[in-house]
Design goal:
Elements lengths: L1 E10 L13 H22 L8 E10 L12 H10 L11 E3 L3 E5 L3 E9 L2
Parallel strand pairs: 2-3, 2-4
Antiparallel strand pairs: 1-5, 2-5
Helix pairs in contact: 1-2
Length: 122
């Protein structure tokens, strides 16, 4: 049973899709670093505390109406979960550290990602 939820809303951003991690290792590293920096800055500005235990993660990514195809929802998880761990918003991205709910991707007026982090009692 969740005890407390933290909602992190990042306007104008979506996590990098796994499909973009092709090519040279430095490109992958740069894309992951950009995701991590975006999450870190917004989490600090919005006062999201570091994880002290297991958290449930829910993600709703909104793409603007004029972008091309919507990404496969599961393709957004890898970079985002890595960023959440590096920013200490998750203890770990394994089953012991987090419970990942199926991500949702939809169209909207503007690009945005909403991440709900629920502390889970153990």
């Amino acid at each position: 049973m969740p005890t407390h939820a933290h909602i992190l809303t990042i306007s104008g951003w979506m996590p990098t899709s796994d499909n973009k991690f092709t090519g040279h290792w430095s490109r992958r590293h740069r894309l992951k670093r950009v995701d991590q920096q975006q999450v870190a800055v917004e989490a600090r500005l919005q006062g999201i505390p570091p994880a002290t235990g297991k958290r449930r993660v829910s993600i709703v990514a909104t793409s603007d109406q004029h972008s091309g195809r919507l990404p496969d929802p599961t393709n957004l998880l890898k970079s985002l979960l890595d960023a959440l761990v590096r920013c200490r918003l998750l203890v770990d991205d394994s089953d012991d550290g987090c419970e990942v709910m199926p991500p949702q991707v939809r169209r909207g007026q503007e690009r945005q990602t909403v991440i709900v982090l629920e502390d889970v009692e153990q």
